[in-house]
Amino acid sequence: MIEMMDVTKQFGRTMALKGITMTIEKGQIYGFVGPNGAGKTTAMSILSTLTAPTSGMARVGGYDCVKNPKDVRRLIGYMPDFFGVYDNLTAYEYLDFYAESHGLPVNERERVIPQMLELVNLTHKTNDYVDMLSRGMKQRLGLARSLVHNPEVLILDEPASGLDPRARIEMREIVKALRDTGKTILISSHILPELAEMCDTIGIIEAGQLVAAGTVADIDRHMRGHRLLKIRLLGRQAELLTHLRAVSSISNVVAEDGHVIAGFTGTDAEQAGLLASLLAEGYPIIAFGETEGNLEDIFLEITKGVGS
């Protein structure tokens, strides 16, 4: 549904994107994560037909973003990281303005706008002026604005930026609900844990380069070169630490918060065999499985040295 192939973008002497290549399948939520200035907004602007790449190809729904911008715009709903609102309009009037801009007739607008306000939990603010809404409400109204023409693809640039924890949770739940309707969603953030729970795939961008892509678990495993096992048991923890340090497929064994954490380089079958052997030796194990590790550490490790 979304394709970028070796896309570059240069502003004067600054290379904002350096050969970005990625594919997002229909119905996926793809999380674009990277620090401020990494190139997220530039990539999204290209996909939204707001700027053209210096080189490379970008397509949405099979349409070229440079050659067929009108076709792309019909398919997408774009929510920029900063957007203007018309403070002297009510929430309803605001959405009505944008729905009319997309060519929706009056009867269609009268049907769709209440649905959008309900989706983003703003029905009770229908007749309130935009400048009286909280930041979180304005963000949700902006999301509703990007949905009024029922696009197949949503491009959301840092939709939770500046929101308090409750508003972030509300935004996350709305995005999940939109995925359940079959929409393809590209969403960006500079905070990896914020995207991990809702996204099918994560792409980490730093200094204009896509340095890693995959599920959070895949990225974690790739970075560490192995899986992390987390074991909880009722007793004999010190004994288990000594035991695991003698296993060839185990490394970096530590005790942490009542658990034993260990790197594991074996196969799934070897992991099952390890558990069976520990139980056979009488270790009182009550939890045994993989853990994804600390997401902030993953991000810092992957981006270390990029662009320097």
UniProtKB/TrEMBL annotation:
Pfam families: ABC_tran. The keyword Cell cycle does not apply. Keywords: ATP-binding, Nucleotide-binding, Transport. GO terms for molecular function: ATP binding; ATP hydrolysis activity. PROSITE patterns: ABC_TRANSPORTER_2 (PS50893). It comes from the Bacteria. Belongs to the ABC transporter superfamily. This is Putative ABC transporter ATP-binding protein YbhF. It comes from Aneurinibacillus soli.
